[in-house]
Every structure is written in C-alpha cells, then in structure tokens.
Amino acid sequence: MIFCPKCGKENNEEAKFCQYCGTKLTSLENKKPAQKRLQAEKIWIEKCPVCGEGPLVYHDHKGMLGLTTIHICECERCGSTFKKKGKNYQLTRVTDKSNHVWQEYGKQVLAEREWINIANGGISDAKQQEQDINSWLVDASHGKVTFADTNSPVILKKNERAFLFWSDIALWEPRVVRQTRGSYGGQTFRAAKGISFKVGNFSSHSESHEELRTVDQGMLTLTNKRLVFTGSKRTNNIDLRKIISIEPYRDGIASRRENKQKTEYFIGINRVNINISSNGHEYAIPVSGIVLKCIIEGLIKQL
Ligand SMILES: [Zn+2]
Ligand SMILES: [Zn+2]
C-alpha cells in the first residue's frame, strides 16, 4: 500500500497516479518520511476523540498578519475542533460542554497517540500516571508493595532492611509562644515553602499559640522497623509500632508517637525520589508526605 502525499488516501503499490485526486505518486524510497507522517495523521483524525465517530477534517487558517498558519482539525459530525500545537493537538472547542471528553480534556494539549487512546475509550498519559500512582499508594498502604534496599549509615538490626534514606532533613517541633498583642485566631501559619497549616484553633482571647521551630538538621532513614533521625544534636529513634498518627504535607510529615508529647515534623522529604512500578508502568516519584504516610502505614501492617 502507498499513501498519496496530497490527499493521504491509500493507493496500489504500483500506482503511478493517485486514483482519488490524480497526484503523481513518486517511489516509496523518496517519500517515506512524508508518507509515514501522513499515515499517522490519517489514523488519529479518522475517529473523533469527542464523539467517537469523526472523521476530523483539516482547515488551515491564516494568523492575524497572514504570516502564520493555524492548523485546525474539525469533526464533521460533532463540530469539535483541535488546534495543532507543535507535534500535538489541543482540544479547543466542542458544541456540548457537558461531554465527558471536554470535561476531562478540554483545552488540554495531547499527543496524537493519546487522542487515539481517548477515541477508543482510553485515557491520557497524565491520567494514566495518576491512576497508576494512586493504585500503588493504596497497595503500599496495605503493605502489598516491595522495596529495594538502600544504603544508610544506620546500623541495622536482625531482619531489618533500610528502604529510604534522606541526607538533609529538617526536624521541627512546636513550642508555645506567649502572645502579647493582636490575634492569630484561625489564621494559617505559613511555616516554610510548601508547608502551610492551621496552628490550632485559637480564639481572639488566647494568650499563647504554638509556633514551629527548627530543632535540628540531619539524616533520616526509613527501615521496615524504624524511622531514624540522626542530627547534629539529636537522634530520634522512632519504632514504627509506636507511631499513632502521621499527617502528610507536600514536603514533609508530622508524626505523633506514644510516650512523646511533642509532634515531630520531618521536612524536606520530597527531595528524594522513589522508583515505583504500577500496572506495568514505571515511575520515579518524589516522596511527598502522602507517599511516605502510605509506605509507613503498609510497613506497620507487616510488623
Ligand atoms: Zn490523492
Ligand atoms: Zn466528533
């Protein structure tokens, strides 16, 4: 089979001229890349991703000054339009905005391959990644994922394995601060980049409030039994079985444990990535608070 460079339709291998538009068909060797490209475009525009029927038809529009050309594909059936952006296409318009494809992918710029997936009931790469990571987190929190061993300066005990190691983590602890004027009632206290939360629920009558301060800077190791912080001043050896709760933040966790009054905040955990495998796809994701919380929950279930 040979594709016409002008109209993109299939012709016989031996054909000298396109049987649809009459364009002269040159040899396969000369036209290979162009034909390949036409073939790919033909496939993606065959089936409209919005209505699932299509086909899409190309329209070229001149830009404001007539210097640029805007490539638009429009569905002959539902009127949806896609604007070419580099190698990809942006869904720019639909006639019915309640359509689920518009709801999920309206204004998004996706590759031809992704639009083909969507036209056939699939999802975009970003959505696939989100699904894969979510299902990995659920598995992790149930203790159903395995981890590779990592190096850590912590001396491991019998049957203990280190899974995650951070070389630069800040340890924060709350301390009570006397308040002489003004009110912090319900105010969000922005502690550092990426971490912000309500510091208690203080009424305008309160005379003191909690403030977080950096206690130490050091290394953090997660094993299948412990979370170990080794700083310049302190060593916090947290038995996973003693953890009562973990509150996740984008770049850290707040951990509460038995026999310790103060919450411990470990900040800077998202600077380390973890390699995960989910539904046959591989990702390297930052260890955010929610990721570490799920991992620790799963490890606790195995103790
Ligand atoms: Zn032709
Ligand atoms: Zn359509």
From TrEMBL:
Q: Which InterPro entries match?
A: Zinc_ribbon_dom
What the entry lists under Pfam families is as follows: Zn_Ribbon_1
**Annotated ranges, domain Zinc-ribbon:** 3-25
Descriptive protein name: Zinc-ribbon domain-containing protein
What is the organism field in this record? Methanobacterium veterum
